Amino acid sequence: MFEFAYGFLLARRALVLASILAAGCCTLWAQADGQSAAPANGPAPGEMHRRGPGMERELAQLTHVLSLTADQQTQVKTLLTAQRQQFEALRNPPAANGSTSEAAPPSREQMEAIRQATDSKIAALLNDDQKTKFAAWQQQRRQMMERRRGPNSQPDGQPDNQQAPNPNAAAE
């Protein structure tokens, strides 16, 4: 009789353990299934998330800040698309003569020149009130970038290599 009760207890424990395991697996499966769907404003599954705000997000910000009309939105989107294509062309230049050698990465000056050209084209589409708001938005964006770079960085994004003088150097 005691053996029967002990066997029954083990079977019950095994059943509880199996139920907990099954519930845990179902929970993990449901979470993994929910994460595979892309968020509405994020990259599609399998796509890498790009650095920076992204063209769609920047367009949404400009639309909100500047109260862009539908026509202006279309024109700005075209300009931002062209800017992205220019950036990609700089980052991934076509291989010349079948050469697979690594090309130098684009300089900050090249990227900034493309950005400034795009910004001036966008400004040309705006009315006077929007131009004022656009200039303020650009200034805010510059200040945020400077804060991200930190106090010890040069305009090109490289940290300063200047060090404080070594007090022990004079003793040598």
N-C termini distance: 91 Å
Uncertain segments: 37-43, 45-49, 157-167
What is the helix/strand order? HHHHH
- The helical percent reads 55-70%
Record field, number of beta strands = 0
Q: How much β-strand is present in the residues?
A: under 5%
Shape: elongated
Could you state the oligomeric state of the chains shown? single chain
Major sheet characteristics: none
Radius of gyration over C-alpha positions, nearest whole angstrom:
29 Å
Structural class: mainly alpha
Please summarize what this structure is.
The protein has 172 residues and is mostly helical.
Layout of SSEs?
Blueprint: H1 2-36, H2 55-66, H3 70-91, H4 108-125, H5 128-149
Helix pairs in contact: 2-3, 3-4
